[in-house]
């Protein structure tokens, strides 16, 4: 997965967040890539959703 560093960090941040089933399914391939799964291209709409969820999630 080729992503900007801040996007990678945002993905890690929201991984354990309380997500809706729809968001969890949408982000499933990206979460799998965090664990060394198949490398994928992330569509712009998914990138936008990652940024939106990360912005709404309290910082730990």
Identify the quaternary structure here. Answer: single chain
Please give the count of helices: 3
Mean pLDDT: 84
**SSE order, one letter for each helix or strand:** HHH
SS-based class: mainly alpha
Fraction in helix: 55-70%
* Unreliable residue stretches: none
Rg (CA only): 11 Å
N- to C-terminal separation? 25 Å
Number of domains: 1
Largest sheet: none
Number of strands: 0
Strand content: under 5%
Shape: globular
Can I get a quick summary?
The chain has three helices and no strands. The chain is an all-alpha fold. It has one domain (5-56).
Can you offer a commentary on this structure?
This protein is mainly α. The chain has one domain. 63% of the residues lie in helices and 0% in strands. The chain contains three helices and no strands. The longest helix is centred in the middle third of the chain and has 14 residues. The radius of gyration is 11 Å and the shape is globular. The model has no long low-confidence stretch (mean pLDDT 84).
SSE layout and pairing:
Blueprint lengths: L4 H11 L5 H14 L9 H13 L4
Helix pairs in contact: 1-3
What features would you highlight for this structure?
3 helices; 60 residues
